[in-house]
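[step 3/7] fold_predict: job queued, chain A
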Amino acid sequence: MEQAIKEAQKAYDSGEVPVGAVVVCQNNIIARAHNQTQLLNDVTAHAEIIAITSAASYLGNKYLNNCSLYVTVEPCVMCAGALFWAKLDKLFYAADDEKAGFARLEKQILHPKTKVHAGLMEKEARILMQSFFKMKRG
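[step 4/7] structure written:
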């Protein structure tokens, strides 16, 4: 999660919502990403989507069923849907997203075999997010 926080800091430093993600496979980081929606002018350029694409390219396989994703904020419904199709093994996220997080839905949105772990380095991720929005809102 420390590496995901570093990615979130990159997003923060470039004016993006500070979300960072890393994909780990066999104890190695195979993909790193941070939000790039402003840079790419693309609403789908979330850290998770970029990380999934990069990891799949690295593996030469669309499935991440032996991989874990570490992300600083609970994935949104779009990202959770992508994680479903990627058949992710484990999802670790730091801070809840009370407004747009996938866990607010009453339906199962992640793949049934995906194991979810929340709260890892939550304080650090939350402080970064709160600082960003405080700065943006003045």
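[step 5/7] annotate
The longest helix spans residues 122-137.
The mean pLDDT is 96.
exit 0
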